[in-house]
Amino acid sequence: MDTNSLVTENVADTFSQNLYNEKIQQIREKIASVVVGQEMSTDLVLTALLANGHVLIEGVPGVAKTLIARLVSKLVDADFSRIQFTSDIMPSDVLGTNVFNMGTNQFEFHRGPAFGDIILVDEINRAPAKTQSALFEVMEERQATIDGTRYPMGDIYTIVATQNPIEQEGTYRLPEAQMDRFMFKVVVGYPSLDGEVRVLAAHNRSQAFSRLEDIAPVVSKQELLDLRRLASNVFIDEKAMRYIATIVQSTRSHNSIYVGASPRASIALLQASKAFALLHGRSYVAPDDVKILAVPVLQHRISLTAEAEMDGITVQKVITEVVNSVEVPK
């Protein structure tokens, strides 16, 4: 390829990134107009969407977990499906089942709500282990196998799940293998005082936060795929990759950690850092991207020792110690 062709290609890539940076800004502005005081949480959900990863949103009732998930799905022109997990839900209620057609004397597969583009799984920890296992294959391989037949999911298949951390009755702890399939665990906390005042002011002006019918999509399926391609092409140098690997490796030798993070965590932190950089209009990964994302990527993938738990040490504190112990690349 000659020099002129390379210049033309670079200009085209720059134009493409600028165009999609505008799209990303539109998405963030629309979210900010509806969800107040949860900017970091919404940025993490958008990062997972750009990085082709699933996300688990955890928080007490009333902090906009479900609203964030529904709003993000509305901004993408894609098929949205919602599954309300309960203690009596069965795998066939999620994936679907074969039904005998009396007219054709054949079984026909009726797809469940797990088939779609963006799937909201509300209160995921209310389903028993048998139903949780129905999500293992679709989360990792983007396909479902029903009675020996493989059914692939769509190109932008993404699961956004929510759970309540404080309510124990009628809930089940998610298996570690399933937790590891989520790119992020986003802990949604209470808004700040100023943020809550803004929420009250908006409601006082009769702004109905829960009405999403008027929200128009900002990006199409193809545009989301293009954004994911741009995210995968974000530059990261070898020093930053070694920085990621060292952080994850350090979780396996920390005194307070019983089970450290796997190589899947390293890959997730790499992909997330590139998507986070794109979300903020950059074409390269900075060490701060890795530091910001280390907790949401790692906090659901490690287990503390019994001694650390008895001492009241939190996972977030341990991860912060690990990150701070690793030298930041220059």
Describe this structure in words.
The chain has 330 residues and is an alpha/beta fold. The protein has two domains: 34-203 and 216-232, Rossmann fold, CATH 3.40.50.300; 234-330, Magnesium chelatase subunit I, C-Terminal domain (Helicase, Ruva Protein, domain 3, Orthogonal Bundle). 48% of the residues lie in helices and 17% in strands. The protein is built from 14 helices and 13 strands. The protein has helices spanning 3-34, 39-50, 65-74, 91-95, 129-132, 134-141, 176-179, 193-204, 221-232, 238-250, 263-279, 287-298, 306-310, 315-325, and strands at 54-58, 76-77, 80-84, 96-101, 106-111, 118-122, 143-146, 149-152, 158-163, 182-187, 219-220, 257-259, 303-304. The strands form five sheets. The protein has a five-stranded parallel sheet. It has a two-stranded parallel sheet with strand order 2-11. A hairpin with a 4-residue loop joins strand 4 (96-101) and strand 5 (106-111). Helix 2 (39-50) crosses helix 11 (263-279). The model is unreliable at 1-12 (pLDDT under 50).
Q: What's the short story on this structure?
A:
The chain is globular and about 70 Å long. Helix 2 (39-50) crosses helix 11 (263-279), helix 11 (263-279) packs across helix 12 (287-298) and helix 12 (287-298) packs antiparallel against helix 14. With 330 residues, the protein is an alpha/beta fold.
